[in-house]
Amino acid sequence: MVGLRRAKTILCVVLVVMATTLANGAKMLKENVQDEDKDKQSQGCGESIDVKASGAKGDGKTDDSAAFAAAWKKVCEAKSPSSLIVPKGDYLVNTLEFKGPCKSAVTIDMNGNLKAPSKATPGKPHCGWINFEKLENFNLKGHGAIFDGQGAHAWKINDCAKTGKCNTLPINIRITDLVNSKIKDIKSTNSKLFHMNIINCKNLTLEDIGIDAPPESLNTDGIHIGRSDGVRLVRSKIKTGDDCISIGDGTENFLVEDVECGPGHGIAIGSLGKYPNEKPVKGVTIRRCHIKNTDNGVRIKTWPGSPPGIVSNILFQEITMDNVSLPILIDQVYCPHGHCNKGGPSKVKLSDITYRDIKGTSASKVAVKLLCSPGEPCTNINLSNIDFKYTGKEKGPAVSACSDVKPKVEGKMEPPACTEKAKSDT
Question: Which end of the chain is more exposed for a tag (fewer CB within 10 A), N or C?
């Protein structure tokens, strides 16, 4: 009997302990749920704004600028990650400002196309039609959306060749001060000036970008970049009337990979040295690219009589060229249309530049031209496994011309390095 009473006592104690534990657990669970609810309330639920709900028509005729501006204001002011939804359609818009800083991350989910007015109206220098500015953790999902600049009229009145000035027409897409952001699967077509201008950005990825304009579209650089660090351009196709990619001062750690270029003027670092106090260009990699039917292949261009500057740590690798007029070019007497100071040599210093595994066909007899500056001769220029065949009408094989440089050669070199003295075309 004593044992039975003792067992009952122990069982009772166990039951009390279990009940207390379950009660405490339920209380803690309730408090945790309440805390989570408070967190959700403090964060807000975000916004998903459809531009058509803000009044956009998407019929290609009605000016939808105000609807886009209203929708952007709402998502940018949301306290948690939010989305701007652009359904299928053609949206006629004037200048748009997708400008931050926003209170949280913003995604534009674009299934429709944007269309600019066809009239070429000059504006402020370096102005943009579609502007993305001061955004962090921004994401543009294009789904193949087209940004149509309707630039044909602008090309007819463009007088760059006569005046050397043509920067008052709008850039199709201007990207300024973006950090940790991504732009994917959009297409810029028929821009009035540059297609895309990237300035002061950090850790920006551009993926599956399409650029499309005819060869006669003057000054329509595909993608221009400057004063940016950690930008990546991958899996893209660029057809335009100027440089497919132009790389300006202050560009660091820029990767171009799996890009098709042509028609156009090729891929260029520069022009550099036109203005004082330009920042160095360093850490640029151009690889696994295909360049076809262009005036140049990979080019570095600096102005004569320039202030001091620096270009260093550059790699051109695994590039195929088809029918390119001058596949590899360093031009340190760059002087388009005669608008330059020829009073002295370029003082932009080029060093640590490698051309590796580059092959294809040259439309001109000079396939490799390294025209460096007598004021700052190029140093540590490396040529490794270069193979070009000349396909033009002149007799004989391709040749290589050099001036003020002694390149290091490794592996195959066709044409043989520096068999002629490089001369200026201006």
Answer: N
User: Considering the domain boundaries, does residue 276 fall inside one?
Assistant: yes
- Let me know whether 259 and 149 are in one domain: no
Catalytic residue among 224, 265, 337, 339: 265
Here the contacts of 67-70 (C-beta below 8 Å, separation 24 or greater) are 68/93, 68/96, 69/96, 69/97
The pLDDT of residue 325 is: 96
Q: Is the model's pLDDT at 21 over the cut of 80? A: no
Residue 103 pLDDT > 70, yes or no? yes
Looking at the fold, whether 299 and 391 belong to one and the same domain comes out as yes
Structural domain range at position 152: 46-190
- pLDDT-derived band at 426 (thresholds 50, 70, 90) equals low
The mean pLDDT of 188-210, rounded to a whole number, is 97
Residue 143, Ramachandran bin (φ over 0: left; ψ between -120 and 50: alpha; else beta)? left
Tokens encoding 230: 């950690």
pTM of the model: 0.88
CATH code for the domain of 259: 2.160.20.10
Q: Say what the pLDDT of residue 165 is.
A: 62
pLDDT at 244: 98
What is the total count of domains within the chain?
2
Active site residue 265: yes
Residues 69 and 91: their CA atoms lie apart, in Å, by 13
CB 370 within 8 A of CB 418: yes
